Backbone:
């Protein structure tokens, strides 16, 4: 089954491109998510100090 | 929270559909796109290149709106929001130029032709690039905010002309030019309903992505400025 899947990818390389772009998008998404979370915690910290 | 997951899913769908859905002469399934003469397989760039150009317009519009708000209320947070939008607008304008240039190499034979569309985006890059030079040259933050607001308002007046009008009334190589009788207007007449749907989902999804990035960027600028003041 696994060999079949990799065999399919070898003959349809556009799906490899798709998986790579999806991984890149996942990375960008996680980065944005974390940055947003950190900014919110810094904002609330600054408000508490005031 | 929920909208972030929706954004993730929609963008994943656009990536999957935009890359893998086949282009065929006569589409007979929901996942097939029609062949557009002159564009062929390279027509798929429309799902990624056009949204970047679209976002630069949205970002420059937001910069102008917050420029107007700053001039009315004199709130420096509005200047930070305008500056954040200008930065994103510039990033997406560069992305539109680079992606279009790569596409042009394999469609027209060279990376750059001084086609009306290429020339207009180049002029926009110069106009908004000089705004960053202006901002970095002024230390007084009120003066910087005031000049930047006025500049972003005047600069945006040129955007509809350079993005929507000039490339369409002049003859050129880009799809949608006045002499284009093969592939333009692409969106209205050459796409089938499925392709239009993916295209509009792509525009919508990229717009949400811009909004999220803009929020993160202006919050970071505001926090940074508050810390500097202390």
Residues:
């Amino acid at each position: 089954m696994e060999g079949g899947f990799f065999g399919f990818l070898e003959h349809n390389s556009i799906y490899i491109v798709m998986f790579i772009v999806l991984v890149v998008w996942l990375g960008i998404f996680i980065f944005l998510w974390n940055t947003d979370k950190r900014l919110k915690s810094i904002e609330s910290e600054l408000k508490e100090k005031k | 929270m929920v909208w972030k997951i929706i954004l993730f899913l929609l963008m994943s769908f656009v990536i999957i559909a935009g890359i893998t859905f086949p282009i065929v002469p006569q589409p007979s399934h929901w996942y097939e796109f029609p062949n557009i003469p002159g564009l062929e397989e390279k027509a798929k760039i429309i799902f990624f290149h056009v949204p970047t150009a679209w976002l630069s317009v949205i970002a420059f519009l937001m910069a102008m709106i917050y420029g107007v708000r700053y001039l009315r209320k004199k709130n420096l947070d509005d200047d930070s929001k305008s500056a954040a939008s200008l930065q994103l607008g510039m990033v997406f304008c560069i992305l539109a130029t680079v992606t279009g240039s790569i596409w042009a190499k394999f469609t027209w034979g060279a990376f750059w032709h001084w086609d009306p569309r290429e020339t207009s985006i180049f002029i926009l890059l110069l106009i908004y690039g000089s705004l960053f030079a202006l901002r970095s040259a002024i230390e007084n933050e009120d003066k910087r905010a005031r000049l930047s607001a006025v500049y972003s308002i005047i600069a945006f007046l040129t955007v509809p002309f350079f993005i929507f009008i000039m490339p369409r009334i002049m003859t050129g190589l880009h799809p949608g030019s006045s002499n284009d009788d093969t592939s333009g207007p692409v969106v209205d007449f050459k796409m089938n309903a499925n392709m239009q749907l993916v295209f509009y989902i792509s525009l919508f999804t990229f717009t949400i992505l811009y909004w999220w990035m803009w929020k993160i960027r202006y919050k970071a600028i505001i926090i940074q400025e508050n810390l500097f003041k202390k």
